[in-house]
Amino acid sequence: MHRSLRQLRPLVPSTRSHLSPVASVVRHSHQDAQTTPSSSTSSSNLSGEHGSRTTHFGFKTVPEEQKESLVRNVFESVASSYDVMNDAMSLGIHRLWKDDFVSRLKPGARGPQKCIDVAGGTGDIALRILDFAREKYADRETSVDVVDINGEMLKEGYKRFKKTMYHNTPQVAFKQANAQCMPEADFPSNTYDLYTIAFGIRNCTSVPDVLKEAYRVLKPGGTFACLEFSRVNNPLLSTLYDQYSFTVIPLLGTILAGDRESYQYLVESIRRFPPQPDFAKMIADAGFTTGAMHEGRGGAWIDLWGGIASIHTGVKL
Q1: What residues contact residue 47 under an 8 Å CB cut-off, 6+ apart?
Q2: Assessment of whether the complete model's pTM goes beyond 0.85
Q3: CB within 8 A of 36, min separation 6: which ones?
Q4: For a surface tag, which of 81, 184, 212, 264 has the fewest beta carbons within 10 Å of its beta carbon?
Q5: Sign of dihedral through CA atoms 43, 290, 147, 309?
């Protein structure tokens, strides 16, 4: 089945969607960078004389209806240098984390799977899924729908896949849609075996809505898996990481992309995301079965590099 750039046309009008994959965020009131968000992060606040709903954009409080366009501007700005951006934010370690993320999921181990990678515009997770299934299990039938709200990000992924054996095959499709309200006609309920989202969910306006949609589109027995920057649990490492994040990363944004503000937002968005136990509870509240509410073996999440990033998983029973 041939794929073309026509697939990058929006499935829903992007100017009306609440927010999407590649830019996902949790809604809660503005607070200091070091304050731990509570479970109230799942809902917006009412403010202003007319009671308009607000959310956060980094450390700023903004009207909820403005956030999508603000985040879209960030990712349109960094789309062509997205891998460089992640290299800057993780010292290049994000590539190892993504390898670890996919290898833990073992795509193809139980036969061909239908996968959806949300906020996956650049295609790096989708490519890892297909390569893992092919190399480990000789599986050339596993497929991935790459979904993103941002057309510029999807174009980067499409260009990446044109260099691979998967281009113009039924194994990959690119679809522009909102992670919070994917159209039933294009994303039927109980369709996918595996739902992945990597370094995207923290930018969505409503994380609970993203999780509800993930639950809806997964088959019973399907797996939700999220890789995201998280809360560092070692005080010394946390201090060093904060210094690097708030001083070096914005400077690198200026040097590498001529865009300090976008990189500053991305750092702030990490600090506004809920700590691991709170996010694990949100996943469970969406209906998923998780491990126990702790890190590590038998737990709901796994910390990478002391919690700089974490892998959360849940199963739809």
Answers
A1: 53, 54, 61
A2: no
A3: 231, 275, 278
A4: 184
A5: positive
